[in-house]
Amino acid sequence: MGLLRVMMPPKLQLLALLAFAVAMFFLENQIQKLEESRGKLERAIARHEVREIEQRHAQDGLRERESSSAADGDDDLVIIYNRVPKTASTSFTNIAYDLCGKNHFHVLHINTTKNNPVMSIQDQVRFVKNVTEWKEMKPAFYHGHVSFLDFAKFGVKRKPIYINVIRDPIERLVSYYYFLRFGDDYRPGLRRRKQGDKKTFDECVAAGGSDCAPEKLWLQIPFFCGHYSECWIVGSQWALEQAKYNLVNEYLLVGVTEELEDFVMMLEAALPQFFRGATELYKTGKKSHLRKTSEKKPPTKESIAKLQQSSIWKMENEFYEFALEQFQFVRAHAVREKDGELYVLAQNFFYEKIYPKN
C-alpha cells in the first residue's frame, strides 16, 4: 500500500481510499443484514417451537380434563368486584350481566343486610366456602358493597381475582348525597332514605350538616383496607397504608370512574373469557351509561374548599391519587392512542432458546 501511494497521483489515492471506504461500508451493511436475517430466523424457529409445545400441552390438557373432572383451569376462575357506592359500579356491573350468557360465566350479587360492608366472622367463613367450593357457579363474577376480604387467611389455595373502581372523593360524596334524596334513572320509582329533603349540598356544607361532613368521605379507604377494626376508624393512617398495600398486591386492576372506558378495555384484554365484547358494549350498549343520579347540582368552589381543609379529605384524596397514578401506569404499558382512539397492545414477548431440543 505504501508503494501504491508513491506511484499513484494524489487524486487517484483519494479515489482509492473512497472506494475502499465504500466497499467496507457495503460489506458491514451486508453483515448487519445477515445478522438481522439470522435473528428473524431464530425468532421464527423459536415461535414455531413454542407453537409445537403449546399444541402438545393443549392436547395433554385435553386428555387430563377428559380423565379428571377435578382439573383446575379457567372454568374455576372467580372474580370479585367489591364495588364502592356511587363510582359507576351499576353501569359497569350491567356490562357483566349483558355478557355472562354469551361468554358463559355466572354473575352473583352479594346482598348484605342494610348494605353493611363488614361481614361477621361466621359469614366470612361461609362466603369463602361458597366462592371456592360452589363449582356449579364457576366461572363466576361476584359483586356487592363489601369491603376487601383476604382469602389467604382461610387457607385457600387459589384466591379469587379482585377488581374495583374508585372516584374523586368529593364527587363521589356529592353524588351519594343527591342519590339519597332523589334517586336515579335506574329505579326512579323507588323511595330513597332522604326523600323529601330539598336542601342542596352547598346548603348542607354551609350549615355543617352531618350528611356532607368530612367524615362521610371516609369510605374508599376502608373498602380497600378490609375487615380490620382499624380500617373503619376515620382518619387512620394505618388504614390508608393498608388500603394502598391491598390495591397493588391484591387487586388485578383498579380503575377510576372518570376513565371507565379505559378500565373496561384493559379488562377485556386481560380477561377475555369474561369481558370479550365489553368495550364495544360499553360504547354502544343501552345499559353502559344507565345509572345517573337525579337532581344533582355541582358544589361551589367554597364548598369544595371547605371540605378540602379536612385531614380526612386529604387522606381519601391521597388514596385516590395513588390509585389513579397506578391505573395510568398500567394503562401506559397496555394501550396506545392513534387518531383519537385507544388500541390494546399486541403481545410483546416471546420465548426462545428452548431446551432440551426434541
Automatic annotation (TrEMBL):
The organism's superkingdom is given as Eukaryota
Topology in the lipid bilayer is annotated as: Single-pass type II membrane protein
Q: Which GO terms describe its cellular component?
A: Golgi membrane
| Keyword annotations | Coiled coil, Disulfide bond, Glycoprotein, Golgi apparatus, Membrane, Signal-anchor, Transferase, Transmembrane, Transmembrane helix
**Which example biological process does GO assign this protein?**
regulation of canonical Wnt signaling pathway
Q: Name one Pfam family in it.
A: Sulfotransfer_2
Asked whether the keyword Transmembrane helix is assigned, the reply is: yes
Q: Where does it mainly reside? A: Golgi
Q: Where in the cell is it found?
A: Golgi apparatus membrane
For the keyword Disulfide bond, the answer is yes
Coiled-coil stretches, from where to where? 24-51
Tell me a Gene Ontology molecular-function term this record carries: heparan sulfate 2-sulfotransferase activity
Q: Which family does it belong to?
A: Belongs to the sulfotransferase 3 family.
Q: What is this protein called?
A: Heparan sulfate 2-O-sulfotransferase 1
* Source organism per UniProt: Cynoglossus semilaevis
